[in-house]
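Objective 1.3, modelling of assemblies. Example input:
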Amino acid sequence: MIEWFTWVQLPVAVAAGLLCLVLGFAGRVPSDLTLGALAVVELLVLVQIVVAIAAPGFGNSPTGSALEFWVYLVSAALLPPAAAFWALLERNRWSTVVLGVAALSVGVMVYRMLQIWTVQSV
Amino acid sequence: MESLQSAPVETRTPTKMSGIGRVLVAVYGVLALAALGRSFVQIVSKYDEAPLAYALSALAAAVYVVATIALVRPGVVWYRVAWATIAFEFTGVLVVGTLSIVDPALFPHDTVWSWFGRGYLFIPLVLPVLGMWWLAKHRPTAGAA
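Predicted structure (tokens):
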């Protein structure tokens, strides 16, 4: 895990989540903007997967449980596509809120992943 | 006589998950995923350390999954399943949450419900209440199979 990249990823996920929540509660259906925001969140998670695969090879290994880290990472990667798929199935304001919930959940998971990688030395 | 034609199109089976219920289902889904992932990790890597806490985690995770499905599926049976699972969760978070504070030695390792779900932003405590409120407002109509 590259720390600065994770610190970029976190605010992006949170911002995307808040954006979708606000627009959703304002009654907007999923748009290019909100779906695009989720796509950015997903892209960063995919980059994180590549980083997590490569990093141990450069002597950068998780201090906590690698298994737990990967369960979080895979779950985080599944959320945005699932929410987007659902948003396309039924386009109403609540699908936008669901997009926001997914993006915020990714943010929480990324934060947990950072903890597992850096400070949790069990 | 032709009034049937002018009736609003309502052919799709009304699901319980339309409207704000979708958000509830989404949050339940995320919580189910989180609980499932966590208990999977706990049981695979360190089940021996705290069999009670980790078995409880797995049970809670399974119930969250069933509750999520029950919220989505239409019909009276699934409605009852949703009530049962959500009531179970609420009881679980209250009992385990209280015990984990009164007697921490009982649950030396975290479960979803320890400290009223503190590790999960207290979502496990709030969600069943919202779920029960929502179920009470959306009883299945006799027409919906």
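Confidence is low (pLDDT under 50) at residues 1-14 of chain B.
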